Fold:
Amino acid sequence: LRYIQNFNNLWLVFDGVEVGSERRITKPEFITAAQKLEIQSAESVYDKVDKNAKGYVLFEELCDWMSRNILSDWDDEDNSAVQQNGTATTNGANGTPSKPCAIHRVLLVPTHDDDVHQMFDFLDTKHMGALTLTSLELRLVEKFPEYAGTAITTAFHETDRSSKGFITRNEFGFFLNFLQHYQNLQSALEFDADGRITYEAFMEASNQLPIPRGRSAEDVFDNIDMKMEGIVEYDDVCRWMADNVR
Structure:
């Protein structure tokens, strides 16, 4: 549950050290940024974070490691200045704000099984082994306002595909994953007047999407576009990502 506490500050540092714009950092970038991230033995730590040896780490992977190993809170005054409109800026060398980061769009959820079960137990106050939409909306938003919005309702119905009226512990991981993608992908994709995404818009945003290693953006779009119409629904994109990207 430490995700919600620290991810804003970590995002500002991550965005400041990333050379490209793909929301991932390479090993050299990680080592260069180690001092800012308060990490000792950076090369060894990088190898632990990059579990699949893919040559880069995603923001979610870095946040997961940091939440488990860096227990002290970061000083907000050193890392960010939150503006009244809900965005944040990193401070430049002369103390003036540099480019804004729309961190209000970034939502992180636990990915490790133990953390997923811990959050489920926190929400399942009656120990029923199941969560209804009402209980999720009340308990989750009360404790973590970052989860508020239509994303919870959409994620619930996408998870409860048999319409039984609740989601189980085994389904909760998918719920959280869908919730995360539903919230985060909105800032990367352009929608048409009907709220759908064209092939061209998907390809234009491909470098900001969590495309699995070994898959191309074209291949992913074709998998989502089952009817081969050249246009897809946002919920379908999020469903595919929740099924294939964790």
